[in-house]
Amino acid sequence: MVLKSEAHFRIEQFMKTVAQAERSLLLLDYDGTLAPFRRERDRAFPYPGSTQLLEAIVRSGRTRMVIISGRDTSETVPLLGVAPVPEVWGLHGLQRRRPDGKIETAQIDDRYIDALSDAKRWLDCQHLEHAAELKTGSIAVHWRGLNESEAEALQERLLAGWKPIAEYSGMELLEFDGGIEIRTPEAGKGDVVRIVLDEMEADTPTAYLGDDATDEHAFRAISGRGLSVLVRPRWRQTAAQLWLKPPEQLLDFLTQWLYAVGGCDARGREAAAAVSGS
Length: 278
Description:
This protein is an alpha/beta fold. The chain has helices at about 5-20, 50-60, 75-80, 110-125, 150-170, 190-200, 215-220, 250-260, 265-275; strands at about 25-30, 65-70, 85-90, 95, 105, 130-135, 140, 170-175, 180-185, 205-210, 225-230, 240-245. It has 2 domains: about 5-105 and about 190-275, 3-Layer(aba) Sandwich (Rossmann fold); about 110-185, Alpha-Beta Plaits (2-Layer Sandwich), CATH 3.30.70. Strands 5-4-3-2-1-10-11-12 form an 8-stranded mixed β-sheet, with helices on both faces. A 4-stranded antiparallel β-sheet has the order 6-7-9-8, covered by helices on one side. The two termini are about 35 Å apart.
């Protein structure tokens, strides 16, 4: 992790490579990175100003933008609100929505489907179904809004109930900010990063922005190929190269990217002005 002054310098140098390249790649996590966490998950909209900047970057035509989320793409796209819609990967990489709207979903092994059914039955028996988010390939339980002791107690119950299921089936137990998820090991954000990088020229300026433990795989996957940026209010131990505090530093990063790709037409200038308050 580098100091703030050095981080500022490194971002400036990186943006120069973006400005000089015909094509760049911007990879972004959604919850916690582009949008603050909300207990009401259907109200987790992006930070004010970020949607306009992302839209202007997409419209510049010089950046391939890829959103990578644990959500289903049917949730992410409406919340993101960017038009035209960029490429969106959902369910930690099990689902891919291309910019033309075509959706591809990976097949899940039967043993994982059976394990998820067992995990769901355990939740029902524990009367915890109200806290569960059921997804293709995973079940997540959230404890945002609970006090610390309540959250720790729920975490212990979940680990006690789900750990045997994960062990016999080969499923993964993934802890994240405000919850835990039992999921198929068939895909992850790091896998998505590697797939997308393989589709680009090796010298394409690339950055990945994320906040959570699930983004660490992506930070490591991009090592040696691009810039990894931790986006969260408080620093934590991470494989990312830089740390930005949202929303101000995130918006500044996106604004610099917009200027680097020459996206400041009328819409772009309006987006940048709205963020700067000028």
